[in-house]
Amino acid sequence: MIVAIFTFGLNRGKKMPELMNSITESVSSIAVILLIIGGGGAFKQVLIDSHVDKYVAHLMEGSSISPLILAWLIAAVLRVVLGSATVAGMTAAGIAAPLVAATHVSPEFMVLATGAGSMTFSHVNDAGFWIYKEFFNLSIGKTIKTWSVMVTIASLVGLAGVLIINQFIK
């Protein structure tokens, strides 16, 4: 930022108050995103420290549900609740990690299933939602009808792809 202040600001004749306003706008637009990601990382650690991951692994013992579907479901629920794909993916990975050892499922497929689940239903807590909304100048309702539906379809197609490929490569 210091280099940018000098090269793109002071060297081009801009005054310090104008530069400070520009910096304030820039920082305020990214601050919420950084807080959401940081909060999500903390939330993931709270879940791991409280042994939710071990509880989920224990519930899976003797269960007929595919661990790939469970990893997708955990990530999808977290995405809808929290809004951030990054936070949902990190948290779901921390919760679902013990399932790899407990069920002997491919860790690569668990990553893909978790990633697909973390894409589900983007809404107002997601930076991508707002970028899409503003770029195309849409209302919140139209953004939900287009962007949110599209990422949910992509998430389901991703899960289906993982389940299909898992049948052939074990």
Features:
mainly alpha; Glcn_transporter; 8 helices; cell membrane; transport; membrane; transmembrane helix
Give a structural overview.
The protein is elongated and about 70 Å long. By secondary structure, it is mainly α. Helix content is about 80%, strand content about 0%. The chain is built from 8 helices and no strands. The model has no long low-confidence stretch (mean pLDDT about 85). The protein has helices spanning about 1-10, 15-50, 50-60, 65-80, 85-105, 105-115, 125-135, 140-170. The protein has one domain (about 45-170).
Outline the fold blueprint:
Elements: H1 2-9, H2 16-49, H3 52-60, H4 67-82, H5 85-103, H6 107-117, H7 127-135, H8 140-168
Helix pairs in contact: 2-5, 3-5, 4-5, 4-6, 5-6, 6-8
Order of helices and strands: HHHHHHHH
Class based on secondary structure composition and strand pairing: mainly alpha
How far is it from the N-terminal to the C-terminal residue, by CA?
A: 49 Å
Strand content is under 5%
Level of helix content? over 70%
